[in-house]
């Protein structure tokens, strides 16, 4: 003999409480949060600049298609800003500032990277402080046209 039983389940009902916070105070909180977020963003940007120097420009050594170029090949920075040269390909590259194409009084051996950056992602950074135009090249690929120019204001 089979028996059949049933059970009833009652779901409790829930009524939302009346709004306890006025619309005006909600807007005030939102405005305060927006102001705090803006202040935090400014503080983070300022501390990043103070901690690592101003990052003015990243220059790729070798284009994505394997072309032997600096990308960009010509650019402008402010005096004291950092330029980071990043090997973008598997070729060995370096950055040599041409002694005939730097401002008077600048020793190109002190700002050049004679050693090769051999792997993708390897970097060399330099900070130029004397205003003027600086010509640079990649020693093994200069003949292929891998040359560049930076103007420091």
From TrEMBL:
Keywords, sorted A to Z: Copper, Electron transport, Membrane, Metal-binding, Thylakoid, Transport
Membrane topology: Peripheral membrane protein
Required cofactor(s): Cu(2+)
Presence of keyword Calcium: no
A Pfam cross-reference name: Copper-bind
Keyword Iron-sulfur: no
Compartments, as annotated in UniProt: Plastid, Chloroplast thylakoid membrane
InterPro entries: BlueCu_1, BlueCu_1_BS, Copper_blue_Plastocyanin, Cupredoxin, Plastocyanin
Molecular functions (GO terms): copper ion binding; electron transfer activity
Domain Blue (type 1) copper, first and last residues per copy: 58-153
Top-level lineage group: Eukaryota
CC terms in the record's Gene Ontology section: chloroplast thylakoid lumen; chloroplast thylakoid membrane
Note accompanying the cofactor annotation: The crystal structure with reduced Cu(1+) has also been determined.
Amino-acid positions noted as binding Cu cation in the UniProt annotation, renumbered to this chain: 93, 138, 141, 146
Coiled coil regions in record: none
PANTHER family xrefs: PLASTOCYANIN MAJOR ISOFORM, CHLOROPLASTIC-RELATED (PTHR34192)
Record's function text: Participates in electron transfer between P700 and the cytochrome b6-f complex in photosystem I.
Family the UniProt entry places it in: Belongs to the plastocyanin family.
Name of the protein: Plastocyanin
């Amino acid at each position: 003999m089979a028996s059949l039983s049933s059970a009833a389940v009652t779901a409790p009902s829930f009524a939302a409480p009346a709004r306890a916070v006025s619309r005006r105070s909600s807007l005030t909180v939102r405005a305060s949060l927006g102001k705090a977020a803006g202040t935090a963003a400014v503080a983070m940007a300022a501390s990043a600049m103070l901690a690592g120097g101003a990052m003015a420009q990243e220059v790729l050594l070798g284009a994505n298609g394997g072309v032997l170029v600096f990308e960009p090949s010509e650019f402008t920075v402010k005096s004291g800003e950092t330029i980071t040269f990043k090997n973008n390909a598997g070729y060995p590259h370096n950055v040599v500032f041409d002694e005939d194409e730097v401002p008077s009084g600048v020793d190109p051996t002190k700002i050049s990277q004679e050693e090769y950056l051999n792997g993708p992602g390897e970097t060399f950074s330099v900070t130029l402080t004397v205003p003027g135009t600086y010509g640079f090249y990649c020693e093994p690929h200069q003949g292929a046209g891998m040359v560049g120019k930076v103007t420091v204001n």
